[in-house]
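Field reference: sequence -> structure
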Amino acid sequence: MFAGANVDKRIVRQRFDRHAKEYDRYAEVQRVMADELVERMCQTIRPPLSEGTPQGNPPNTESLIYDIDLDKMTASIDEVSCAVRILDIGCGTGMLSERLARAFPGAELTLVDLSSRMLERASTKLTHAGVSPANIHLITADAEAWLESACGQKGTGRPTFNIIASSAAFQWFNFPADTTHRLLQLLAPGGLLAFATFFPGTVRELHDAFRQAEALLGFPTQPHGQSYPNKEDWMTWLLEHGGDGPAIRWETSSYRYTFPDVRTALAQVRRVGAGNAVLAHNDARTMGDGQRKGTTSRELIHAMLQAYQATFQQDDGRVPLTYEVAYCLTQRGCIPSISGIEGSDRRCRRYK
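Structure field:
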């Protein structure tokens, strides 16, 4: 069972503060994740278009679907939007919040993020989108700590939400089992938890290149990025804490981007604040952020770049970077009926 991301939240906050201004310019896969999550939410909450028959799943997408009870979600966006309370966990610059505001006009939005600078940009984005400032609530906090505090409130002091949503943030959870439980506790009856998160295999080219470089140099293997929970982990947490037969819709997609060289690919990752924040092992050659010091670090980076280029360079000279993404919609308290198809949705994009 996956224990947690084991990341230093202080480093995560510093990096997102530093890159807040340029985040939207480089966060391509995060933009796609927000778009597709909201699209799935709208497909789920809106009544089917023909004779009550659910619309088909996207082709070549791995799916596990438990029927979502539309009555419990008050049937349609138009009916729920006037009163819906939405919580966006790890909102960043508001990519997901902005899309939720458009899908649910009049909704009350609560945004939680570690980075105050990210929250500032999210607030500006929502205001420009026409959201009333009275409907925007900003909370600068570690989402896991905030959820623990919120769930500790008694009676009317505990907040509840019709929708809890998150995109490209759950991978930072150090305590995913407990945090999932708390997320579900804050859902109103029939409420929806919807999230998009990175999945095992994300930036696998980079991890493979580092392993090759460490083997070549005789260095012990260290994490150079995060590991991620798999489907079995998420299903365990959701089914354990989702009440009496939670409804679940689960899908995965793969996105492959190509770049002119390895340094450009890695710069894309750094510019969205997604560097290695895994807590260091007790190794004399490491600093507090898990990176080796001085000459040793330069040796490793040089060897990694060579291994990446040699192993993954395409015939056209470009190099790929792959993201694996899971989309999950969960509703508490429904009796599940299971259907689905196997496969994966794969897409490729080029960067100049």
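Note: Residues 9-47+60-204+227-256+327-343 form a domain with the Rossmann fold fold (CATH 3.40.50.150).
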